[in-house]
Amino acid sequence: MSRATVLAAGGVLWRRDPSDPEVALVHRPKYNDWSLPKGKAKAGEHLLVTALREVTEETGYHPRIGPHLTTVRYRVTSGGRSANKVVTYWSMRCAGGSFLASQEVDEVEWLPLEQARRLTTASDHAVLDTFTRTRRDTEPLLLVRHGATTAPPRRPRNRPETHELNRSGRAQAASLVPVLAGLGITDLLSADLPACVDMLAPFAATTGLTVHREAQLTREGFAGNEKHVADRVRHDASASQALVVCGGQRVITGLLSALGHGSDIRPPSETTVKKGGWWLLHHRDGAVSSYERHEPADWRNPIPIRTN
Predict the structure, then answer these.
(1) Are 169 and 148 in contact (CB under 8 A)?
(2) Closest CA to 292 of 303, 302, 279, 283
(3) How confident is the model at residue 119 (pLDDT cuts 50, 70, 90)?
(4) Average pLDDT score over the chain
(5) Computed from CA positions of residues 255, 259, 261, 266, in that sequence, does the dihedral angle turn out positive or negative?
């Protein structure tokens, strides 16, 4: 009989100087140990949202997601049975808050990396070692493929797409809200298409932000203008604290390729993503330093694919 798998997520929460950070460790009285904050995923919850929720609950601080670090696997006992635990970690910048003790965590310590490494277990060492090698002075850029849509109507050639999100697509749009909140998204840019605008509408309604429509992010507007549009997105991302761009599959894959020019690393060769999924890029002044592919939250608690 195969072992059950327990999915969990957490983060290396850091503050102060990106080149010489302090990281947060939590003390768990049940185990009398110091560890990185983490916890189990809820059913249907995207692992990135799990990481944000668990780090907030265990530390009291407000995290902003940085690059994906690594995924650690080990065996645990769950419900009296042996299980495989899979924990996915992100780098997280502290954006305020304060610690409040609970039954699960009674202390939080902010420590230099070497001291944190001495207090933790081997599985946490692997995470901290990856964190040490990962660039931290970056900002997020999210490229979202719109969610599931109604069956597209027959339309004359060269006429714009008009199909809208269906019930599943609207659920995918709603599930994107905590992701965008965790990334600290401040600017919303969408193809001038109903499905794309509606994909960002729930977050816009929650925050009061405006969804800016761009005709050149449609399939027709993007074709032949790839470099110009990528330069525009790079400029907007550099001027923004955190930008999200929503488009169709061809536009998202085209942007990934075009944004790779002049960046620290090249984009992955496989750039497709399911409807409602997204690419999370981290950049400095428009130069991309990491790529993560995320499938939609309703797709079996996906583990992100890191390509840098």
Answers:
(1) yes
(2) 279
(3) very high
(4) 90
(5) negative
Token code pair at residue 209: 């932000």
Give phi and psi for 220, each to the nearest 5: -70, -40
pLDDT at residue 250 in the model = 94
Residue 81: predicted pLDDT: 80
Q: Structure tokens of 68?
A: 């994906």
Q: How confident is the model at residue 38 (pLDDT cuts 50, 70, 90)?
A: very high
- Coil, strand, or helix at residue 75? strand
CA distance 100 to 107: 8
**Rounded distance, CA 31 to CA 144, Å?**
40
SS3 of 215, please? Answer: helix
Q: Please name each of the domains of the chain with its CATH number.
A: 4-133 (3.90.79.10), 139-306 (3.40.50.1240)
Q: What is the pTM of this model?
A: 0.88
More confident residue, 69 or 261: 69
For 269-286, give the DSSP string. S-----TT-EEEEEEETT
| String of DSSP letters for 237-266 | HHHSSSEEEEE-HHHHHHHHHHHTTTSSSP
Is the confidence at residue 78, as pLDDT, over 80?
Answer: no
